[in-house]
Amino acid sequence: MEYLLPTLREKREVDSLIRDTIDKVLVLRFGLSSDSVCLQLDDLYKSAKDVSRFATVALVDVDSPEIQVYLKYFDITFVPSTIFFFNAHHMKMDSGSADHTKWIGTFQKKQDFVDVVEAIYRGAMKGKLIVSCPLPPERIPKFELLYKNV
Amino acid sequence: MNHEIMKKKKKKNDNGEEQQFEFCEVCKLNHNQGRRHIYFPAHKSSLSALLTRLQSKLSDVKPFLKTPMLLPAEHAQQNRLWCVFCNRDVIELDTPFACGKAIEHLASGEHYKRVKGFLWKHGGGTHRADSFRVVEGDFKKWEKKCKAMKTEAAKAEAVGASNNIHNELNADYLNSFHENNTNSLDFNITNGVVVPLQSYTNEKVQVSCSVPYSASEAGSTSYDMRGRMQMVDAQCLKNSTGFMDNHLSSSSHVDYLSNGSQVQPGVKVFHGDSRSLNSMNLQKISYSSKEAIGGNVHTGATPPWFNSAEENEIMQKPELSNFVNSKAGKSSKLNPKRVGAAWAERRKLELELERRGEVITKDYDANWLPNFGGVWQSGTRRKSRKEFQVENKKSLEFDSQSESFVPLQPYISKRMRRDKSE
């Protein structure tokens, strides 16, 4: 499904997409087209059509030089990382891990992805900048967060 | 002695948890508490909720009990009442009166029994049974009023000319048919059926179409059909009541189904009659000469709906604006407290302006960064952005400084320099 979703390599493309997605959740996946986990995640994005009424999905290539500033800004170290925006505002999700600002890893099922996006949308419509994850902990990918390489 | 022992055993069962699991329909719950369950507060609250809901529905029906009203068939379809006690839907069929079936059901003895049983089982108070049914006296009064209404309506129809199709069929249509038709045709047209074609009865027409017919329609009908299989099928599908076909020939057979059962249109064998083509006795409609002057399709006149459209145009424009306003209203209904609402509104306006052509070349800074809350963020998000930008600048300055360093030169020792200068 990777080829059906827009892949962004330039910062201004990402910027314009963030700015132009109004009243819809913007799902930005930062990843590599060569990474297997990324590809698995991208395959799940075929449910992008199901959520198309309230969400837009786009892929951002992490290797591109212009995107590096975003990697620093969003503090992206693991790939794939998914960041959610709503009306150019960043949405956080508390999924039990230390990092609430992004979703790291893939989803186990298409429905999980849809549920997460729905939770974000509902929270955003209510005016909340942080929402809690609707998935049970066993389905949330675990990772260890490094703080300044500690 | 034995009897007492049995009683004790029974009591033990009641107190212990060895009771069988039962399903409480009110709480929608399986429990093994037996008769104790109905006294628990949870059950009591769900029961009271259920009964109040039912009461509100019944209170909708009660005004019709006092004053019966005629109801057109299309609206009747939408009215149905779910009787909780009997666990069935009461659909408004075959009754010209509003909530007719519901009232009949509520007045029935069976329903009363069930109400009492339900209240006993779920502990609602059997003295309240009367509030969930229609008392016999009230029901009889209602029936009388209905009859009175019917007779009044019948009188009105008989006297005046009405546009009722049923009446046409019953009165005028029949008469004209009898006049035009030289052959003796027996047919019986019942309410709700439009019969366009007639045919001779000479041919054996074997058509079997199972069609529901209302129990109230009695009597035999001999009715041959030709060339209206589609009509029959349509009528079968429409589930119209009171449509029967019977055939003269003994070999044909008809399936009669009782009211309310499924319709199965099945046309088996059909023989046509060529003679009947000529004798399609259609009723003539005569129109006044005024209409002829006005023009018709053949003379190329404008259709009547266009004429009325001119009048409606003035009406339409405010409607359109209302529609547009409602759409704009829809977006304002989007929670104004939602995330980034202000941004969204601003951006929408900008995009609209761009679309209209007034291109506002608002070139965003290449260093624009979206609103982001950092992982280890403390303070507002703006702060995190600023911090990042500050850090970025520092790192950039650092980079540039390193570039503008003194270009690397090979080391020249002091002695060599001294030697050079000398």
TrEMBL record, chain A:
Species annotation: Erythranthe guttata (Yellow monkey flower)
Gene3D superfamilies referenced in this protein's UniProt entry, alphabetically: Glutaredoxin (3.40.30.10)
Predominant cellular place of this UniProt entry's protein: nucleus
Taxonomic superkingdom: Eukaryota
Entry annotated with the keyword Nucleus: yes
Family assignment from sequence similarity: Belongs to the DIM1 family.
Function text: Essential role in pre-mRNA splicing. Required in cell cycle progression for S/G(2) transition.
Key word Ribosomal protein present: no
Gene Ontology BP annotations: mRNA splicing, via spliceosome
Keywords per UniProt: Cell cycle, mRNA processing, mRNA splicing, Nucleus
Listed GO CC annotations: U4/U6 x U5 tri-snRNP complex
Localisation: Nucleus
Subunit field text: Homodimer. Interacts with the U5-102 kDa protein subunit of the spliceosome.
Protein name as catalogued: Thioredoxin-like protein 4B
TrEMBL record, chain B:
InterPro entries reported for this sequence: CCDC84-like
Name of protein: TITAN-like protein
Top-level taxon in the UniProt lineage: Eukaryota
Organism: Erythranthe guttata (Yellow monkey flower)
One Pfam family it belongs to: CCDC84
